[in-house]
């Protein structure tokens, strides 16, 4: 990702040094670089017995690098290589240095219960994560963050952006070198499976931090019934302890508790935490709530027909891994008559024989999944027996309240009577003079009401034509009433009138506030407000660019932009900004500009306001003139500014 973004920003990558292929497969960095024609080198190590390998050094010098960028490093790079380029070397480290120097920084951020996490981009020196800081970013640590969650949510995506930003700062000659302080500095060792065992004489919070600080790698573990069991999905338990079956854990002062929601563990402070999943030594992972049932499932003896099914499935055995499960399962479903299988059926049965057993049980209808238990209340209604649950529904199960209390209920509809409101007022805007009238009037009349409609002061003729047609259609007198006029006079009178029971308004937020106030003071009318305002459209880099351009243009120019949800501004992610603007401009050049007299309002004064703004300030989207900061001579504004014009666009 860093490589791709650097290339996209115009930086020339002269060489990529990465790890050798594994099982005949190149790592993603090598694949991306090779596809792009960048020289790729795959050395297993850079030095032997403390000395740089000559072949590796020569290969490195051959590319003529001016800067070394190390987004992720698993090898020791010799100092003569680190210091060789003109601008030296920069490294990404997943902690807020000088805290948590070392190879397991993310793990220790969580293990130590830090409230803030983050990363540092620093200049490499001969120490271990001790070089001057170029830039840092931080984020809050969520209560149940794991190593994977923290990495995927913040450290990975923001780290990519930061590395690219750091390179640009160096290219611009603006990159700082802030010496690291030794105050508050920590160094922790690398966390591996052998030192991830849980020490039980700790508080519940410390146990929680230890477990999530090893989730998913290397995995915090304990010994249960002579077997190493790894714990995943920890969370602090703030509610009462649910009932369950005790489970002895080696070294724990108090047995765990296998409940319907997971495995409850206890700290030495009397507080508790819950673990959702357990993994055994053979790699099989189960929900912790299934611990006592996991070993009780007997092996199914296959019939002759089921043996044939098993042989059919075994054809797919070479594909049984996490990456290929999604392609394997559809074939098995087809061969087994549409049998309902999910990817989880593979993941939770990591032995192939277990998977066959799962398939056979499903074919027999023996899924062994707990049925929903409901204690119904039955009532006889209209010669039918209706069964209704009456308990609390929590975590997918019906259960009694802890205190066992119940209360009587009533049917709130027993005393409800629906009736019309008699007289309703409708105030509509100018941009959709017929459609708005039809939307609002149809519902009002269908519910048995009469209406008084005030069209926009500048577009009254459509509504008056509608009134004429309503007479010809046979509407009784007084059902439809049209009152043209200004909002300050006619509109205000409608909102204050005591005989009007409901008012519907579409227009500005400012006027909507005044209408709501008047309706409340007069007779507490029912009010429906649709208050307009330009709506920014946000476009991210993972969009389908052609579709996003078309959608963005439509959002801006639909109905000439005279739309309460028109995208007055487009916010485009930086990495695709230039390409997006180029495509918009290429379309915009061919846009037809109509006469200012062919708009619903036909107000020359409004166009005059736009022209005055053009002369007085930066360009508008509607500008026909070429101005500084525009992409093209028809006025697509690239950099909105905090000016009066931008607020009034």
TrEMBL record:
UniProt-listed SUPFAM superfamilies = ALDH-like (SSF53720), FMT C-terminal domain-like (SSF50486), Formyltransferase (SSF53328)
Q: Locations of Basic and acidic residues compositional bias?
A: 635-649
Write down the PROSITE patterns for this protein, in alphabetical order: ALDEHYDE_DEHYDR_CYS (PS00070), ALDEHYDE_DEHYDR_GLU (PS00687), GART (PS00373)
Active site positions, chain numbering:
530
The region called Disordered is annotated at 628-649
Residue ranges of domain Formyl transferase C-terminal in the record: 192-293
CDD domains per the UniProt record, alphabetical: FDH_Hydrolase_C, FMT_core_FDH_N
Keywords of this protein's UniProt record, alphabetized? Oxidoreductase
Span of domain Aldehyde dehydrogenase: 422-586
Q: Cross-referenced Pfam families, in alphabetical order? A: Aldedh, Formyl_trans_C, Formyl_trans_N
An example molecular function term from Gene Ontology annotations: oxidoreductase activity, acting on the aldehyde or oxo group of donors, NAD or NADP as acceptor
Family to which this protein belongs: Belongs to the aldehyde dehydrogenase family.
User: What name appears for this protein in its UniProt entry?
Assistant: ALDH1L2
**Highest classification ranks of the organism:** Eukaryota, Metazoa, Chordata, Craniata, Vertebrata
């Amino acid at each position: 990702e860093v490589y791709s973004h650097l290339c996209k920003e115009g930086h020339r990558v002269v060489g990529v040094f990465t790890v050798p292929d594994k099982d005949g497969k190149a790592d993603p960095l090598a694949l991306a670089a090779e596809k792009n024609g960048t020289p790729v080198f795959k050395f297993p190590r850079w030095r032997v017995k403390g000395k740089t390998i000559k072949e590796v050094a020569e290969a490195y010098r051959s590319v003529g690098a001016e800067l070394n960028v190390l987004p992720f490093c698993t090898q020791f790079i010799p100092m003569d290589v680190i210091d060789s380029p003109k601008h030296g070397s920069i490294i990404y480290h997943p902690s807020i240095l000088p805290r948590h120097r070392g190879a397991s920084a993310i793990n220790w951020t969580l293990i130590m219960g830090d409230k803030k996490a983050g990363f540092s981009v620093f200049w490499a020196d001969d120490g271990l994560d001790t070089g001057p800081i170029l830039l840092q970013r931080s984020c809050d640590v969520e209560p149940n963050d794991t190593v994977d969650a923290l990495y995927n949510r913040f450290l990975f995506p923001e780290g990519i952006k930061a590395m690219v930003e750091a390179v640009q700062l160096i290219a611009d000659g603006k990159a700082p070198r802030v010496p690291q302080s030794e105050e508050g500095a920590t160094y922790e060792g690398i966390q591996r499976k052998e030192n991830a065992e849980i020490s039980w004489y700790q508080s519940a919070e410390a146990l929680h931090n230890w477990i999530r600080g090893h989730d998913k790698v290397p995995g915090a573990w304990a010994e249960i019934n002579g077997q190493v069991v790894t714990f995943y999905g920890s969370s602090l338990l703030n509610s009462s302890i649910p009932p369950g079956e005790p489970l002895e854990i080696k070294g724990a002062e108090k047995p765990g508790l296998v409940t319907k929601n997971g495995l409850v563990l206890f700290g030495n402070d009397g507080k508790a935490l819950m673990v959702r999943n357990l993994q055994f030594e053979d790699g099989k992972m189960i929900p912790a709530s299934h611990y006592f049932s996991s070993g009780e499932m007997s092996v199914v003896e296959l019939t002759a027909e089921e043996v044939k099914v098993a042989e059919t499935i075994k054809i797919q055995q070479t594909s049984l891994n996490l990456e290929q499960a999604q392609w394997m399962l559809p074939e098995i479903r087809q061969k087994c008559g549409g049998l309902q299988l999910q990817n989880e059926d593979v993941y939770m049965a990591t032995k192939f024989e277990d998977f066959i057993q799962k398939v056979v049980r499903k074919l027999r209808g023996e899924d062994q999944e707990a049925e929903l238990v409901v204690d119904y209340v039955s009532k006889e209604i209209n010669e039918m027996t209706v069964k209704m649950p009456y308990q609390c529904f929590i975590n997918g199960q019906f259960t009694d309240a802890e205190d066992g209390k119940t209360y009587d209920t009533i049917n709130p509809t027993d005393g409800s009577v629906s009736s019309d409101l008699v007289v309703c007022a409708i105030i509509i805007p100018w941009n959709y003079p017929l459609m708005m009238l039809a939307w609002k009037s149809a519902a009002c009349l269908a519910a048995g009401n009469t209406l008084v409609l005030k069209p926009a002061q500048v577009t009254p003729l459509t509504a008056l034509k509608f009134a004429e047609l309503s007479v010809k259609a046979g509407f009784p007198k007084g059902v439809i009433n049209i009152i043209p006029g200004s909002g300050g006079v006619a509109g205000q009178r409608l909102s204050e009138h005591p005989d009007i029971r409901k008012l519907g308004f579409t227009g500005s937020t400012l006027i909507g506030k005044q209408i709501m106030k008047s309706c409340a003071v007069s007779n507490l009318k029912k009010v429906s407000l649709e208050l307009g305002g330009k709506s920014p459209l946000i476009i991210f880099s993972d969009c389908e660019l052609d579709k996003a351009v078309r959608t963005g243009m439509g959002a801006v120019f639909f109905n000439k932009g005279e739309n309460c949800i028109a995208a007055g501004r487009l916010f485009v992610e930086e990495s695709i900004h230039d390409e997006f603007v180029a495509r918009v401009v290429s379309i915009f050049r061919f846009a037809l500009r109509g006469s200012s007299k062919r708009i619903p309002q036909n107000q020359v004064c409004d166009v005059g306001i736009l022209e005055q703004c053009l002369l007085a300030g930066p360009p508008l989207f509607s500008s026909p003139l070429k101005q500084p900061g525009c992409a093209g001579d028809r006025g697509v504004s690239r950099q909105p500014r905090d000016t009066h014009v931008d607020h009034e666009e």
